[in-house]
Amino acid sequence: MTEIKTIWATGRRKTSTARVRLLFPGQGKIVINREPVKNYFSGQERYVHPCLLPLELTNSLNNYDIYVNVSGGGINGQAEAMRLGISRALARVDPAFVPVLRERGLLKRDPRMVERKKYGQAKARKRFQWTKR
Length: 133
Prior knowledge:
Elements: E1 5-13, E2 16-24, E3 30-32, E4 35-36, H1 37-40, H2 45-57, E5 65-71, H3 75-93, H4 98-103
Parallel strand pairs: 3-5
Antiparallel strand pairs: 1-2, 2-5, 3-4
């Protein structure tokens, strides 16, 4: 019997954090917070595709089982955090995947965050209306 190996990786985006566990060899099962990937995103393909992009680029869609625990943020931030976590895990499995993933920018964390609201202002950058008299 073949020994199953496990790789752990973390992906973050905005305030979302995804902990990815990649098992190989596997059958291509992807589970997010104990739900299949299609159920978690309730069939919205625009969120499913970013998660599967690293697997599609490396032609390894059915080679690994992936279990993800994701929390925080919104659904888009969670999808992109999962994408980064899966990309990092694949890079650790096979270093030959690194150039393919790096070319598409999948190994780079997106540093953009929401700017905080400042005191004495309406929002982060919007000011209260100024009146002369």
